[in-house]
Amino acid sequence: MGCKLLVGQNLDCLIDSKTDIPVPIVRVIMKQLLEGLRVMHGKGLVHRDIKGLNILLHSPPESGRVIIKIADFGLVKHQDQALKSMKMTVVG
């Protein structure tokens, strides 16, 4: 599967496609997702709505790379504050 198939999709769409996802791509996606969550948690933010629909997949033209972006911060909560409203915000 080439990166061209990933452009403009979310992780849920990729999983639903029933396409065999190569292990190296799964590793890249998971590594970036975990790193994004680590950074968020380091800033005291808890996403509270991590799901395939909120993991956006991007591949810059002719780069051969997959980049994920965590989206939909509508339920984000700061560990020290009340519920924050940041709907439709994208990080990454």
Automatic annotation (TrEMBL):
GO terms for biological process: regulation of autophagy. It comes from the Eukaryota. Residues 1-92 form the Protein kinase domain. It holds the Pfam family Pkinase. GO terms for cellular component: cytoplasm. InterPro entries: Atg1-like, Kinase-like_dom_sf, Prot_kinase_dom, Ser/Thr_kinase_AS. GO terms for molecular function: ATP binding; protein serine/threonine kinase activity. This is Protein kinase domain-containing protein. The lineage of its organism: Eukaryota, Metamonada, Preaxostyla, Oxymonadida, Streblomastigidae.
